[in-house]
Design goal:
- Helix content is 55%, strand content 2%.
- The protein has 22 helices and four strands.
- α2 packs parallel to α10, α14 runs antiparallel to α15 and α16 packs antiparallel against α17.
Length: 589
């Protein structure tokens, strides 16, 4: 088995190396998205159907070619049909492609009971509840496309988002209970304005206030639009902004033209759009850490990637989320914003690449402070903004918190006395949070990853593996019971074939198997459980030559994606750690 694992690892690393960019890092490739493609097509049609005819036709052709057998669409080409994506594709087609439309209507009718607008709105409410962050954009696109009936009554089902509040100082948002999350300000403004344009408030005072705030909030929207035109580098969010403004008579507004420019720049040759442009910073830091578990990169390669990461460090207040200086985003592209997971990942990668470099140490110290300042009152680490916490993606999260623990520890010896004390206190609070968040069965659940085959679409395998690894790498004295219970759950979730899925009895994937093997190796000796998991990886990667991805990634608003580098990178990390541990055992004997 050792030779087979070694051969698999060599082939895996060679394949990863071949995928490097001229910059030294990795870009990766996100799955094409039916939802992204549908929203982009609708936005382009709303702005200038004739002028963008080729892009619209190519997008619709891609959608027609990737319909599921049941007539619906999922977020990725391998995803199950779901209501939001199928609604948006149905709306994008309009009166074109009668076969695709008929299939979508059949699927939707079976799911909602009828195509009556009220039934559609109620079905979305069942999914999203009080969170209007994604329900409002979906209903807006349905209304623009005529799927909710005639004007202006169709807009009665679109929530009247209070876009006038965007004129207030940013610090007031988190205290006002807005029905959207921190990153959704562009949608709040654009959709709110579209709703007001088509169906103004019956309240004279509210109508006057919104009329008076239109120009000011549009000015703010323009101010926070990235130079590349794409909000969060996300085709759906950018498309929702463009179609909303165009429907309100603002097709020629600079924000709209900037959005269209982004969509034209990011369309793929096959006519589709991904959910986000790329996760290049994230997959590069994952790749660096995976390689560092075995034989690290050469000096020049390490220096090149370290410089690339340092250049991405955000050193000024972010104009969009108002994030303080010190963090990293998931991509160097202009639409990405600083977040906890990428900040922790960049810090750990820099320690693997350039632990003695003054620039790297300075950037890492700023990153450590950024994470400490982000910590919520409960001791956990959220994704973007401290204290928002009422709605998804601004909650504290176990795997992000564990990642921060590992990042703080990586640079612990370089901190001055004051910062070291702050990090110690933050770390202790983080461990207490993780102890409270550990579920009765010993597992933890992540925020940004899931599994469509799980009953509740959660992925405790990913969450538990990441928390166990982070706790072990934190350098702290962790209560043994936390680690033991987590490991016991992970072992109990192994499938009979030797692999792991998102939970017990869920079909095995390369990503989840590699993460489980890696985490168990962090905790102790090589066991038969680990050996069988490694054997599964050797078999199902074809000895390191094929890496079919699984759609376990969750984007904003629970949109599924897969990233083609995940299975390769996670496998390299697990097999590197296994061989390193075998070598250590051999040397000790």
């Amino acid at each position: 088995m050792s030779d087979t694992i070694e051969t698999t690892l060599i082939a895996s690393v060679e394949g990863l190396t071949a995928l490097r960019d001229p910059s030294g890092g990795w870009t990766g490739r996100l799955s094409s998205s039916a939802l992204s493609t549908a929203t982009a097509v609708r936005a382009l049609a709303g702005v200038d159907r004739e002028g963008h005819g080729q892009l619209i036709s190519a997008g619709l052709e891609w959608l027609a070619a990737h319909v599921n057998e049941d007539g619906g669409w999922g977020d990725t080409p391998q995803s199950k049909s779901n209501l939001p994506t199928t609604l948006l594709v149905w709306s994008a087609f309009g009166g074109e492609n009668s076969d695709a439309v008929a299939g979508a209507e059949s699927w939707l009718t079976a799911r909602t009971g009828s195509l009556e607008p009220e039934r559609i709105a109620a079905a979305l409410a069942d999914i999203y509840g009080a969170d209007r962050t994604f329900a409002a954009p979906i209903l807006t696109m349905c209304a623009i496309s005529g799927r909710l009936g005639g004007e202006p009554e169709a807009w009665d089902l679109v929530p009247p988002l209070p876009f006038e509040l965007a004129a207030l100082p940013a610090l007031t948002f988190s205290f006002m209970g807005l029905p959207v999350v921190s990153y959704a300000l562009p949608a709040l403004i654009a959709i709110g304005q579209a709703r007001h344009f088509h169906r103004p408030s019956r309240n004279p005072a509210a109508r006057l206030l919104r009329n008076l705030s239109r120009h000011r909030t549009l000015k703010k929207l323009r101010a926070i639009q990235p130079p590349g035109g794409g909000f969060l580098e996300a085709a759906p969010l950018t498309s929702f902004v463009a179609m909303s403004l165009a429907s309100a008579g603002l097709a020629d507004h600079p924000v709209t033209t900037g959005c269209v420019g982004f969509l034209k720049d990011t369309v793929r040759p096959d006519g589709s759009w991904p959910i986000d442009t790329n996760l290049s910073t994230w997959v590069t830091t994952l790749s660096v850490s995976a390689l560092a578990a075995g034989v690290p990169l050469g000096d020049q390669e390490a220096r090149t990637i370290a410089d690339w990461l340092i250049d991405q460090h955000h050193t000024e207040l972010h104009p969009y989320t108002r994030a303080a200086p010190g963090g990293w985003a998931w991509s160097p592209l202009s639409g990405a914003v600083p977040d906890a997971d990428d900040t922790a990942g960049a810090m750990i990668a820099l320690h693997n690449l350039a632990p003695d470099d003054a620039r790297a140490a300075g950037a890492a110290a700023a990153g450590a402070k950024w994470l400490v300042d982000l910590q919520n009152r409960d001791g956990g680490i959220p994704t973007f903004c401290r204290g928002w916490g009422k709605l998804p993606f601004d909650h504290s999260c176990p795997d992000l918190t564990a990642h921060a623990l590992a990042a703080w520890d990586a640079w612990r010896e370089s901190f001055d006395g004051t910062q070291a004390a702050k990090v110690r206190r933050a770390s202790a609070r983080a461990v207490e949070y993780l102890a409270r968040e550990q579920r009765d069965d010993g597992s933890w659940r992540p925020l940004w990853f899931g599994n469509e085959d799980a009953p509740d679409q959660a992925n405790p395998t990913y969450g538990t593996a990441r928390v166990l690894a982070g706790l072990r790498q934190s350098g702290l004295d962790i209560p043994p019971d936390m680690l033991t219970r987590g490991a016991e759950w992970l072992i109990s979730a192994q499938n009979d074939d030797g692999g792991w899925g998102g939970g017990a009895s869920i079909a095995s994937s390369i990503e989840e198997t590699a993460l489980a093997v890696d985490a168990l190796l962090c905790l102790g000796d090589i066991t038969p459980t680990i050996e069988s998991g490694a054997a599964w990886l050797v078999e199902h990667t074809g000895g390191g030559r094929k890496f079919p991805p699984a759609a376990i990634g969750l984007y904003f608003a629970k949109l599924w994606y897969y990233e083609e580098l995940y299975p390769r990178v996670f496998t390299i990390s697990a097999l590197n750690r296994l061989l390193a541990k075998r070598t250590a055992i051999h040397e000790n004997h």
